[in-house]
What does this fold into?
Amino acid sequence: MAEAQKVYEIPIGPIHPALKEPIRFTFQVEGERIRGVDVRPGFAHRGIEFMGLKRNLIQVLYLSERICGICSISHPIAITLAVERAAGIEVPPRAQYLRVIFSELERIHSHLLWAGVAAHELGFDTLLHLTWKVREEVLDVLEELSGNRIDYSIPIYGGVRRDIAPEQYPKVEAMIRHYRGLLEELLDAFLRDPSVAARTRGVGVLTAEEADSLCAVGPTARASGLAKDVRQDRPYLVYGELGVRAITPRDWGLEPRGDVYDKAVVRLLEIGQSLDLIEKCLHEMPDGEITAFPKIPALLAFLKKAEGEGLGWHEAPRGEVIHYIRLEAGVEEPVAWKVKAPTYSNLMSWVPMFRDQEVADIPIIAASIDPCMCCMDRVHVVQDGSPSTLLKEELLRLSRAKTERVLQGLSRVGGGA
Amino acid sequence: MTADEVVAALRTAVPDLAVELRPRKAGVRAPLEVPELWATIGRDQLLPAVSALKGAGPLHISIISGRDLGETIELLYHFAVGYGTPGGEVVVTLRVPVPASDPTVPSICGILPGAETTEREKIEFLGVRFTGIPRSDHVFLPDGFPGHPWRKGDPETAKLVKRTVEWEKRDG
Amino acid sequence: MGLSSFKRALWVFHVATGSCNGCDIEIVAALTPRYDVERFGIRLVGTPRHADVLLVTGPVTRPMAERLKRVYEQTPDPKAVVVVGGCGSTSGVFYDSYNVVGPVDAVIPVDVYVPGCPPRPEAIVHGVVTAVAKLEKVAEKR
It folds into this structure.
């Protein structure tokens, strides 16, 4: 049977009806099996760095926030750390704790968002609605503290723009208690559920060797067993003192296999870790100034005189974010700026993850690295030169049909498994 | 992993290499220092230096950044060596100047396959050539994009900037 | 405008043409239980051929311009286009990029603009409801 199979090319993308940014995949498939994939990003390329070199540093900060709406704390944290390093600015202690609190809040919202999307791709829409419903609680807290649900404008060079007022502490603490109660339920729904395990175990595997040589970052690398977390490996802000440890599937009592299930394990456990970090910060945070430059014109004047280069890094929800910046005295604009987002590093891990997988698993594998751009609207099956179109709905239907099959199989085998 | 070990490894590949250590203070109560190393090397020394780093510990390439200085193009390879132990990573930046008239650098993909995306990005944005790179087609820019946006005052890129409102004139 | 003016369920297709994901996640948030637009019959569909309303987010990048036009042409009449977010309305902070051809109305006709960076889910729902009013006017004329 297999010897008669022809290899077809299936391009997918770049328009996706549901959530993410556009990207195009071209799959080589043999029957139901994927033999190779070519990834072509760039549909959402806006030339951020090019624009940044024409704007003053404060404008660049706001531009960096709009690199990604989900990482709208991570990029500003990395760029402020880089600029502070280049210009020699000391950040007041309280501001360092506040930055950690906001970035951990962002991690919680981002990981819940991912869990919902993953459930949707598998065909468990109830779970999508459950996770997105509970995600609203952290958005409420972010809105209470920053004034906006997305794009918070919190970090600024030298500190943060908003403090947490004493009357806001109980709200954050209430959120922590709320999520602690819920976490067990979420772990049950995702990790102890036999049908989720059946659909994600052994799917989209990235081995530790591949993750290492392809320089994967964040939960994608940790799921493969690499204890790689920027917060742990190269501490910044107060992460070194908070004692952050990289979470791998070993914390769930399993040997890492690097499949989709392991990626879910890492992300869900990190929600609990973030709750602990926020609580610790609230507790340990000293009183004091929240920024070294309360007045923006003074900050801009200082930055105009600054000269030097610096790196700033941060563990975003998806992995390592790094910014390189170079300042020269006398100009308001940076003379060099390079941004690296986590998906950039994880792009190449898709290639081994898709190899020899089924077409029905394309949606969940693509989503498993939590790409900041992803697209699966249309599948063109090129067959004998005449393209027939498979829609994203069709692809999702394939994914769901597989879930159905798996569920039937489960009930036959275990009855009450 | 300590900074000294990494410097020693680099010097086995590039003898007498001048390495600048810029330790970075992190923390409030009991600050610790994260080692950051910066060094300038020639393009012919790049492959031995990266191999030496790889030999020193798990090697991660964060990004290659770059800048057009007119007669030269400066590439900065940002690495992190050794992860897995808290505070155990050394950040290494190798600065590689190349002449703008012949912007060719050996590809490090043979040593570190994960560098492919960032090398391909430098091809399209700076017009640098990498010898031995597995693929060199565009990643982020549309196919057939005429210019190299990070080259200073690139005329082709400037032509593509289409502004709907010239607000500077309106404000004036 | 009361709920009685909803004469039909509204199917929506979402296109991201280079947005930062901020608006896109707020669109999804509008679908999930807190905001739950499905109770008004508003539903996200997987193909423009089934859609009444196009929700477009982001400035239009060079490679997406042609594709956005194609999606617009594939959407059956009568249709309404709702732009969600500041970048789609005016190019926003991306106004001087070499890879942005302009705001959405530089590529396809737009009926409703929802400003904000990103707009709240309530604002997005309001934008879609405003588009309903437009579609109903078109239907009355026929």
In short: DSSP finds five helices and nine strands in chain B. The mean pLDDT of chain B is 88. Chain B touches chain A through 46 residues (CB under 8 Å).
